[in-house]
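Q: Here's a chain of 327 amino acids. Please give me its 3D structure as tokens.
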Amino acid sequence: MDDRHDPAPARPRVSIVVLTHNRPTELARMLQHLAALPEQPPVIVVDNASSPAVDPTRIPGWGQARLVLCPRNEGAAGRNRGVAEVTTPYVAFCDDDTWWEPGALATATAVLDADPRVVALSARVLVGPDNRFDPACEAMARSPVTPPPGPPLPGPALVSFMAGAVVMRTDAFRAVGGYEPRFFLGAEEVLMALDLAARGGWIAYAPQVVTHHHPSAARDASHRRLVTLRNRLWIPWLRLPWRWALSESRQILREARAAGLIGAVLREALRALPWVLAERRPVPPDVLRRWLEVYRPHALQPAPACLDDEHAVSSTPMPHPLNNRPR
């Protein structure tokens, strides 16, 4: 008689948090892809107050996914509710029109296990049925951020990431308080990235970790543009020194004027001014340098003898796709 027992299955190391709102068809397709993953990760679906609410019995491929219902549409902060349910050391994020490639999460887990300096991996994103390379990934692959001393990072160092295509340390997400609820949707990852870096973490672009994005047609692009500009105006006042907050604000307001949104952006931004000033925590100098390397590289170069310091940094900053990409 063979008394040997099958070994207990390994406990999962990564969970997936999915954010959805009024996209049942896309959600069903995405869940079918996740159910086929060899890693078999726990899946937590956060329904951002869909109307009607997500009903697992009506979603093909629901499987063992858990459902978290938000009482209202909380935007990116809905992910915070999902992470509150996570019991694994790592958490991967999906929107309802994205899904992870088989093996990607195992690769991400191995990479994060191997390098405790890294708190988040931004994945390579393939868009549409023809697997086009997302332009934001092209920018990340060319990131000018100086990496930390010591062993090489698993990919180029970044100052931000893509919120629907990232694998993070669960404790790091919780340590910064998750996504800021006031931001709703748009550039929310930029603020989190600064806070992760301020706590000593590094973010890397990991092209070996792949996710797919089939953009849904169900989106309000005009409202997203307004909210993103407002949030981008808040970020420098929340986290950058005064000098750079003023300089960045001028650039963002130029973009808002060109889009015909300057009045609306200013109204939205100024309405929360007391909160912004109360929450202001400028990042440490080393984190500011990383930000300058991406957005204002000329500011780190010696100024011409004929220019004083203020003129040397006043030229138009380079835009970065992570701040402007449609999602």
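Q: Can you summarize the key feature?
A: The two ends are 59 Å apart (CA to CA).
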